[in-house]
Design goal:
Number of helices: 15
Structural class: alpha/beta
CATH topology of the largest domain: Rossmann fold
Number of strands: 15
Strand order of the largest sheet: 4-3-2-5-6-7-8
Largest sheet: 7 strands, parallel
Radius of gyration: 21 Å
């Protein structure tokens, strides 16, 4: 019998998402020395990013005391370059055998890749989003030649980084075409995302968190997560407004931070939609937060669909709630939602009538509401197998690390 050589693994997830932190915990439980990092300056719903009793994983961060200027592009670029230097210093200090890096802005990633090259540290790019695609779409929407040039530069640097990765993990088959174009397909593996079913569990609708915020009764549409360039926040208000116009009282709850908050507030005021706007909540309360929505809403713009799988949809499934997806049918999350019996509509105003009808019909049938929640949870328990996923990541990291192989047990 053989056991893997314990590795010094540095998992860096810029966003601080829950399932990446769970991966680090599981790798540590397999005997590896795991350090998990994230960026405090990046605003998002964070996972469990502190050691709990019994954990052997360690946690660290960059960007303490600062906040990314998301929509000031020059300032953001300079911030992300500086954070790349901070991240490289962390790598130099801890000298990992292998690095797994995800959700990292291109300027930050570029600086990190320079350090990998100088130190000869093997690293795996966990490719969650194609930044070049998002930047190109945004530039096209703005019609700016300067932004188009910036998008091309981002694409060139992103491809350069991918070519220098020891291996690449992508989250959907759609990424394969990009890596074929970049010449990196031969070192690319598909491992789909998941959500931690043991951490995000179903709770009662009328729970303590709902009572604290006065949303423990009445039809509540809830959105929890990032609202960025690949979303259209006004669709949330449109959906609630259309339900209200049909005679059903409804409340919109959005748990988010950033520029979209002001957009939602103004749109809801203009259309007379009751809205509750809250900042990102502590991760340990996320199950209560999600349980407080009678129907959970996930958004994704068509331009972002091919290269993004909204992690909030996976968390929603774990929470065991009915879900309405305003996202393209081609997105990988759409198939999961439909298999759970929930509904998917195109993310355009023309689809809002049908989406509103679906929400009203579900709300009018408590038995169906409960059945859809149970089906969502059942699918999550079937689809999200962290043990199988960690085994795949462990084998991959061992194959590229400085100390690959095994020793007799």
């Amino acid at each position: 019998m053989t056991t893997p050589v314990p590795l010094k693994i540095f998992v860096y997830d810029n966003s601080g998402h829950p399932f990446q932190a769970q991966l680090s915990r599981l790798l540590a439980k397999r005997g590896h020395h795991v350090l998990h990092g994230h960026c405090e300056a990046y605003q998002s719903g964070k996972g469990a990013l502190a050691a709990s009793p019994g954990d052997t994983v360690r946690f660290t961060s960059i960007g303490a005391g600062s906040s990314i200027a998301k929509y000031s592009f020059v300032r953001r670029f300079l911030q992300e370059l500086r954070l790349g230097g901070e991240l490289a210093r962390l790598f130099r200090r801890h000298r990992p055998d292998v690095v797994l890096i995800a959700n990292t802005p291109i300027p930050t990633l570029f600086v990190a890749v320079l350090w990998f090259a100088v130190s000869s540290t093997p690293w795996v790019l966990w490719h969650q989003d194609v930044y070049a695609s998002a930047a190109g779409s945004f530039a096209a929407q703005r019609g700016s030649s300067v932004l188009r040039l910036a998008a091309r530069m981002i694409g060139a640097v992103e491809a350069w980084c991918a070519r220098r990765a020891t291996h690449v993990v992508v989250i959907a088959d759609a990424f394969r075409a990009v890596h074929e174009e970049w010449g990196t397909l031969d070192k690319t593996t598909v491992i789909t995302n998941w959500a931690p079913v043991d951490e995000i569990v179903p709770k009662e609708r009328n729970n303590t968190w709902a009572a604290e915020h006065g949303i423990d009764s009445g039809l509540t549409l809830l959105y929890s997560g990032t609202l960025g360039l690949k979303h259209n926040p006004t669709l949330l208000v449109s959906l609630a407004a259309r339900i209200q116009e049909r005679g059903s009282a409804v409340r919109l709850v959005a748990v988010n931070e950033g520029p979209a908050v002001n957009v939602l507030r103004a749109e809801a005021s203009a259309r007379g939609v009751p809205i509750v706007l809250l900042p990102f909540q502590p991760y340990q309360r996320l199950p209560e937060v999600l349980a407080s929505g009678d129907v959970l809403v996930v958004l994704l713009e068509p331009d972002a669909s091919a290269f993004s799988v909204p992690s909030k949809a996976l968390s929603y499934l774990c929470a065991g709630r009915p879900i309405v997806g305003l996202l393209p049918q081609s997105n990988a999350a759409a198939d999961l939602l439909e298999r759970a019996g929930s509904a998917v509509f195109a993310p355009v105003e023309a689809s809002i009538d049908a989406a509103a009808s679906w929400v009203i019909s579900v709300w009018a049938d408590p038995d169906r509401l409960e059945a859809l929640g149970a089906a969502a949870r059942a699918l999550a328990e079937t689809e999200f197998s962290p043990d199988q996923t960690v085994a795949r990541f462990e084998a991959l990291l061992l194959s590229v690390a400085v100390k690959p192989g095994s020793v007799a047990a």
